[in-house]
Design brief:
The complex is a heterodimer of chains A (245) and B (555). Chain A has eleven helices and four strands; from the N terminus they run H-H-H-E-H-H-E-H-H-E-H-H-E-H-H. Chain A has 245 residues and is mostly helical. Chain A has a two-stranded antiparallel ribbon. In chain A, helix 5 packs across helix 7 and helix 7 packs across helix 10. Chain B is elongated, with a radius of gyration of 35 Å. Classes of the chains: A mainly alpha (245), B mainly alpha (555).
Chain lengths: 245, 555
Amino acid sequence: MQRGFPGNGMSTAPPAEDSYSSCPKLLPLKMSEMSAMNRKLTQTLAESISKHVDHFNKTEVECLIREFNVLMGEPATPGRAVTGLDRGKFRSILHNIFGMTDDMIMDGVFRSFDKDNDSFVSMKEWIEGLSVFLRGTLDEKIKYCFHVYDLNGDNYISREEMFHMLKNSLIRQPTEEDPDEGIKDLVEITLKKMDHDHDGRLSFADFEMAVREENLLLEAFGTCLPDTMSIEMFEQHVFQEQLEP
Amino acid sequence: GGDQTATVLTLCAMMDFNLMQETCQLAIRDVGGLEVLINLLDTDEVKCKIGSLKILRKISHNVQIRRNIVDMGGLQSIVKILDSPVKDLKALAAETIANVARFRRARRTVRQYGGIKKLVKLLDCVPNLASLTANQEKDVEVARCGALALWSCSKSTKNKEAIRKAGGIPLLGRLLKSPHENMLIPVVGTLQECASEESYRIAIQTEGMINDLVKNLSSDNDELQMHCASAIFKCAEDKKTRDLVRKYKGLQPLVSLLAKANNKQLLAAATGAIWKCSISIENVAKFQEHKALETLVGLLTDQPEEVLVNVVGALGEFAQIPDSKATIRKCGGIKPLVNLLTGTNQALLVNVTKAVGACATDKENMAIIDQLDGVRLVWSLLKTPVQMFSPILRGPFVHALRMQRMQGKCICAAIAKIAKDKENLAVLTDHGVVPLLAKLTNTTDDRLRRHLAEAISHCCIWGSNRASFGEAGAVAPLVRYLKSKDSTVHQSTAMALYQLSKDPHNCITMHEKGVVKPLIHIMGSNDEMLQEAAAGCVRNIRLLALANRKARLFY
């Protein structure tokens, strides 16, 4: 799958982009269209958002805002109600830019970003989410991952949820009597390792302790964080290329 | 089969096994687990590689598994991982190599796949910044693991060279400034391992590492102190280093280490360092400010040989100073030293003879040595390679021969005993025993005369000693001995004269001095051997006289 910024035709603006290489063509256009007032607005917005975000400075937030607008596929015009990235757009981003493939996980990530649960990832939620997604501390990542894996949001990762997530991880032998046996075993093994209070499910405390003991368990139920390469590429594109005139 | 997620979960579960237990380790191998772990190393999945290495790192403590890993090509894969941009992976790979490279073939494999260069690259970091970012801390951890791996690898000589060629020494020197013991131990461990090579000793000195080594002699950590002392031991062969150790105030901490007598490895390293440092006299003086000599003498008993070799070596150097010779005696050091002469450890014996030899130039020491039969013990060591002992012989013992009669008597008695062995005789002759014995002959001390004559008679058997004694003027005085009232003197003198009489010139001398009459008197003795000796001597003289007359008849 080629990675690139989404051009899924849902925008009403300029032609869909399907790779980074076509971005530079577009940007100068956008930049020249931005009026001074527009830029001022972005800066003010950036200022207020960057106060709530740990890992990006003001300039970086500005870049992220612009990137958000690009991804939204609409020109940045002041006063326009920008609701946010919907589930589809967001999942495309996860897939094309960060190489994620697992539907359940991607849903979980969307759920994590969409803090107010309005089925849209607003600009603020986008930036706050990326702060953890790209540069989070271990603590922040633990909370984030737990959230992703807690499919029904009841603050526990249950056996069923684990089964659900691991279902596609094992190659099922067609001749097996119980094709799910392997997965059930895997779930039991994992529970045994991580369920410290022995209540048959993983509370946040269970999860946190297990990850602190063994960092590899952070993404125990599926890759929900980007790998180093993707992070580098994304950051380079957003923070550096955009700053070039 | 499964994807990365399932694999990682499984690997994490495996980590719960008691991976340090042999049955478990071998079980993993026997079910084909080792192959799987090694195959994972070649994938692109970072988390799988991390998980696999975490397990390999543990089970490679097992001697068999190490070999299996190398046989299966696993070491090659691990070396490749050293190039990864992921710091955690680099560190884990290096740590695993540290465990696997504990046998020769593995160390060679690491080098053959360019592993030494890669490991040296890991050392590149600044370890002692005031505050480190998370990233910098990771770099330090990577460097520490690199040092661990190089420590294991450095046991091979070719690797020592490879490390140096790859620019490892200045990097190690930089890491030596770290405040952390867990960094310092592998770094100093590597340096002291490599210090057997001259190139390293020079570099350690010129790159200013002696200062850091000395500093860490005072750390709280026994292992660290031991490695530092070991490094100094090896480097102090060179005078500049000895001066630097003194300059950086390293002598006193070395003496303090002698108190840790329970840790034999540490004690061996510390005594070794003291030994080599004491080759410089200025250091001996400094050592004495801290009563090193007294402490060392205390270590002459109940210590393993690896410690004794160094302790005695040190005493040998200390004893070059007159004051020390007395101190050793006053601390009761002479007896234990002489006792050590009966050992079989070559290295120890060399040092003991040196030390005893150095002590023996002090009169009072010599008395004790003699009392303890020390002289004979040293001479008996002539059975071992002579080269080792010749400096000693030339020194104190020939010197002892020149001393007062009391000692002279002892030496002669010893020579008499020792000269019964042909090889010893050769050595004694080489070292001028003949003229020296000859010089002693002008004595009226019966005890000395007895031993002297005995010694001379034994020495006559070798080479041209008979003639040499004659040339040295030993014969005439011997004749006078026959006037003594002591029959034991007669005995040994008759033997000596008999031996000497095998040389015609000696016969002439004896005849001139009127030896025949007293000899005939002695022939009447009850002692068969004495009769024979006396008779034999007279016979030789007569034969010569006959030959002489015959010769004259023809003229």
